[in-house]
């Protein structure tokens, strides 16, 4: 499973998930902290990741 955590989740969640063996990145780690949802979704699709946020 490959996750992209949205700004609705804390960056620390990405670290904890990686430590648990889940391939996870946070939008803040790739310069998308203030990006529009459509840009984040496009990045997730391009990188074959699941976009995760507090609204999903």
Key structural traits:
globular, 56 residues, 3-stranded parallel β-sheet, 2 helices, alpha/beta
What would you say this structure looks like, in words?
This protein has 56 residues and is of the alpha/beta class. The protein has one domain. It is built from two helices and three strands; from the N terminus they run βαβαβ. Strands 2-1-3 form a three-stranded parallel β-sheet, with helices on both faces. The longest helix is centred in the last third of the chain and has 10 residues. It starts with a strand and ends with a strand.
Short structural summary:
The protein is of the alpha/beta class.
In percent, how helical is the residue content? 25-40%
Taken together, the total number of domains comes to 1
Strand content: 15-25%
Terminal Cα span: 17 Å
Number of β-strand runs: 3
How would you state the average pLDDT, rounded?
A: 94
Succession of helices and strands:
EHEHE
Determine the number of helices (DSSP H or I, runs of at least 4 residues).
2
Runs in which pLDDT lies below 50 for 5 or more consecutive residues are none
Query: Which outline best applies?
Result: globular
| Major sheet size, sense and barrel closure | 3 strands, parallel
Radius of gyration: 10 Å
Based on secondary structure, the structural category is alpha/beta
**Biggest sheet strand line-up:** 2-1-3
Give the SSE layout.
Blueprint: E1 2-5, H1 11-19, E2 23-26, H2 37-46, E3 50-52
Parallel strand pairs: 1-2, 1-3
């Amino acid at each position: 499973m490959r996750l992209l955590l949205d700004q609705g989740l804390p960056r620390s969640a990405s670290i904890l998930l990686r430590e648990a063996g889940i391939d996870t990145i946070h939008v803040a780690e790739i310069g998308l902290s203030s990006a529009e949802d459509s840009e984040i979704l496009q990045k997730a699709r391009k990188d074959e990741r699941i976009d995760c946020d507090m609204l999903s």
